Amino acid sequence: MVSGAKQLMGGLVVLVAAVFWLPPGAAGAATLRAHGSVQQVYVVGARAGERLTLLGARGRAVATQRAGALGGAVFRDVAPGRGYRVGGGADAPRTPTLTVLPDRSAPPTTRLYSQRIPASGYGYLTTRDGTKLALDVHLPAGPGPYPTLVEYAGYGYADPAGAESGISPIANLRGFAVVDVNMRGTGCSGGAFNFFERLQSLDGYDVIETVARQPWVLHHKVGMLGISYGGISQLFVAATDPPSLAAIAPLSVIDNTATTLYPGGILNTGFALTFARARDQDAEAAAPGHGEAWALTRIRGGDRTCAANQALHPDAVSDVAQVYANRYYVPSVANALNPTTFVHKIRVPVYLACQWTDEQTGGHCPDLAEHFTGTRRKWFTFTNGVHVDSLDPATAVRWYDFLSLFVARRLPVLSPDTRALAPLLYQTAMGISGVTFPADDPVEDQPDYASALAAFERLEPVRILFDNGAGGSPGPGSPAAAFEQSFPRFPLPGTQAVSWYLSEGGALVSGATRLPSADSFTWNPRARPRTDFSGNTGPGGLWAATPAYHWTANPAGTALSYTSAPLSGSVTVVGAGALHAWIRASTPDVDLQVTVSEVRPDGIETYVQSGWLRASERKLARGSSLLEPVLTLRRADATPLPRGRFTQVVVPLYYEGHVYRAGSRLKVTISAPGGDQPSWAFTRLTPSGRATVSVAHSEAMPSRLILPVVPGVAVPTGLPPCPGLRGEPCRPSQVS
Questions:
Q1: Nearest to residue 156, comparing CAs of 186, 119, 197?
Q2: Which pLDDT score, from 0 to 100, does residue 250 have?
């Protein structure tokens, strides 16, 4: 929660903003104005701290609250209907009546979509509830018309100096117009921010429909693009089914907020909590050190709309407060933030790419694939790699092919000039020199649009790029796969749940051990340092060819490791899996991390994937399987470990796509969380001190590692270089 001191300071900052930067009259006791929104009512023009009352059609009070420092307020969870009014102080007149809109994709009227936005450059777009969203239009050249894409998030996308974390320049280079839009309550956009509330999705619907009707938009249909936040937002907007949406192309996304924020029920205090704090800051009213800096620049430059739009920013719902208030999975709250529960509503063509070892959004994105049941035109690319690797050359070319075919409706052709820019692009994005686009593209090689479309639609929906970083040119660690294979669906057909059993002497064997035995370790989350990085693209940066990983082995006695015999042949694993373990702990609860690695015949150990579990939250949801166990994570299902007795727990692993080569050995390590994955951190662990954890293995208590093995995958390459694999650090093995 935000401390009282910080709240006070924030109040002073926005009060200063009201006095000095808002237009005349906006900061004082101006005319009270109320507007109906989707299950909300928002108010502007009140006095700071004024008591406001929302009145129903019969004049009865529905809700009351105080106006913020800038004279705004938002009443949430209001029943749809007519006749609402808002009253202020005793001597203040009530507002005219207003209508609260229902939660429906289509607005009451489509007349608002006839509004004009700038044909190029900065401006505003008005949504169904009158909120003005900041946007910046980027055309490739002259007046058009152009195939057009929308990039939409809470980052500084509309900043005229350049979209923060956006990829619009790449699309511009390839002949697309891009409209960069800031979500409500961020930057210069009006309204109050609430992380992926329904209203943000409906705003996206309004953006799509308005942009599609602009005279410079080819075909009057638009697509969406974006990576990370701008990729995730596409899932939410597309689920509202805008009629003018042509296709979406989300990159480096989540499948479920919970799998990134609370993996296994444990708060991710690294990237996930840092992201939440950044959203709270970006949602503040623009002031020195608060809000998005570019908004303050525009206000100081005389942008009166941006200034007036700050009025509701103090009424944002704190993302950090929501993180702590919802540490258990409550379906009525969490399902709305869980794309696996609604992507079946998406009916347009989809191209999605993500990485098993993404250090930001995490390795659970592939779970989305089986839930896209509303469209037959869907393609996925999965690989090892870091957050930016959804832009690797092979993926970027297919992404461009997809957008050309389903948004531009033209034959995809990468011009020589565009190809010549590839080295600069990857030097800038990853800090890697000499990277080029693939020379051959079977789609681009077609003679016309119809042939290219047919060739693309013949592609298998699921493409796995194996050993990203070992593709040779221009060198180890560059974003190129050693080989690839495609499949008709995900999970992959023919996948087998193969078990390796924990046994005495730290062995992984094919069958359960007859004689009962157990091993113990001292649970100590401080035993290893975090694997943090000072940057992404500089020398040794995480996105560079040879990151300076600090992947250290667990000190003796602080973990348990089990290793298989050398594999007689290569084993391809694609999917999730789990560790089923019988554990006993000296404390009623304990947080666990399970890491799978490959111990190669050359003495190198390569990180593959991890999974997490808070033992008290071990209850599995209905429908869980051996290869895709799902925790309920509900408060009612949380149960302490029984004292002094072994209990079976299932630690779900995140997804992987890895070939364990012949002669290598599988290794699984059980420890306290942390130390294996960059950017993810766990500083609020249970217990607060050390503990002793024991793991049993016998016929009666068969602890085992279960992995999704895909038979029949041809592996044309040998062991990748070390270092080399992107997102998968390596080190000398301590296994003899």
A1: 186
A2: 98
Q: Which residue type, as a one-letter code, is found at position 481?
A: A
Cα–Cα distance for residue pair 75/77, rounded to 1 Å: 7
Q: What is the pLDDT of residue 529?
A: 86
b/e per residue, 593-630, with b = 16+ CB within 10 A?
A: bbbbbbbbeeebbbbbbbbbbbbbbbbbeeebebbbbb
- Return the bridge partners of 607, or none: 597
Q: Which residues of the chain have pLDDT under 50?
A: 1-29
Q: Is the pTM of this model over 0.70?
A: yes
Query: How far apart are the C-alpha atoms of 59 and 472, rounded to whole Å?
Result: 73
Distance CA 597, CA 475 (A): 23
**Helix (H, G, I), strand (E, B), or coil: what is residue 372?**
coil
Write down the pLDDT at residue 11: 40
Q: Which of 217, 496, 184, 249 is nearest to 391 (CA)?
A: 249
Q: List 652's β-bridge partners, or say none.
A: 578
**What is the Cα 281 distance to its own chain's centre?**
19
DSSP designation for 707? E
φ, ψ of residue 232 to 5 degrees: the values are -60, -40
Would you state the pLDDT for residue 90? 66
pLDDT of residue 295: 98
- Residue-level pLDDT at 6: 33
- pLDDT at residue 9, as a whole number: 32
Cα distance between residue 624 and residue 708, in whole Å: 14
Sort strands 350-355 and 245-251 into parallel, antiparallel or unpaired. Answer: parallel
Rg (CA), the chain: 27
The set of residues, in sequence order, having a beta carbon less than 8 Å from that of 274 and lying 6+ positions away, is: none
- DSSP line for 499-560: EEEEEGGGEEESS--SS-EEEEEEE-TTSS-----S-SSSTT-TTSSS-----PPPPTTSEE
Contact indicator for 314, 69 with CB cutoff of 8 Å: yes
What is the predicted pLDDT for the residue at 93?
83
Both structure tokens of 122:
């900065």
| Structure tokens, 410 | 């033209």
Look up residue 408 and give its two tokens.
């531009």
Q: Report the chain's terminal Cα–Cα distance, integer Å.
A: 49
Q: Among positive and negative, which fits the CA dihedral 297, 298, 301, 304? A: negative
Q: Residue 350 contacts by C-beta under 8 Å, 6 or more apart in sequence?
A: 238, 247, 248, 249, 250, 372, 375, 377, 378, 379
Contact (Cβ atoms closer than 8 angstroms) between residue 167 and residue 149 = no
The Cα–Cα gap between 411 and 621 comes to 46
Q: In DSSP terms, which residues pair with 582 in a beta bridge?
A: 648, 696
Please give the pLDDT value at position 485: 98
Sign for the pseudo-dihedral over CA of 384, 390, 396, 402? positive
Residue with tokens 């194996």: 466
Q: Which of 288, 287, 714 is nearest to 487 (CA)?
A: 714
